[in-house]
Design goal:
This protein has 4 helices and no strands. By secondary structure, the chain is mainly α. It is elongated and about 50 Å long.
């Protein structure tokens, strides 16, 4: 594996996180807290692996630009902007949500998880969408 393979790996990690988030949500809705905990811890681990891979890629490659088609660039930039803002915001929210769960503060955990889960899902989904737009729909290379 070399650095040019990392965007595809990042998409796989984001997709895996997304699936784990959905399955974890289903588990807690079906009152299966141990399975929920395992899925959410796996989602955290997968997201951390994504973050490391993302940083390594951009350290070596720099930034990527979406240029063509020009008519789609404003749409892409809107998706990218919301993704980046929420990706930054989600880190402390995930840590807070995780900390409260691990401390057994489940009411407080639920209160913040109601915000964390949908934002984390949005970041995961848009991450995969951005990958697809950059490397498959409108290839830049």
């Amino acid at each position: 594996m070399n650095v040019t393979d990392l965007p595809a790996l990042n998409a796989v990690l984001n997709t895996t996180s997304m699936v784990l988030l959905v399955v974890g949500y289903v588990f807690i809705r079906h009152r299966r807290p141990a399975a929920h905990r395992n899925c959410m811890l796996a989602a955290c681990t997968t997201s951390l692996a994504f973050l490391v891979s993302y940083l390594v890629y951009h350290y070596h490659v720099g930034h990527t630009r979406f240029v063509e088609p020009a008519w789609f660039r404003p749409i892409y930039l809107t998706i990218l902007f919301t993704h980046l803002v929420l990706a930054i915001a989600i880190v402390p929210l995930v840590l807070l949500t995780l900390t409260r769960a691990l401390r057994g503060q489940f009411e407080r955990h639920r209160a913040v998880a109601r915000w964390t889960w949908p934002l984390w899902m949005y970041v995961s989904v848009t991450g995969v969408l951005i990958y697809w737009l950059l490397y498959h729909q409108f290839p830049q290379r």
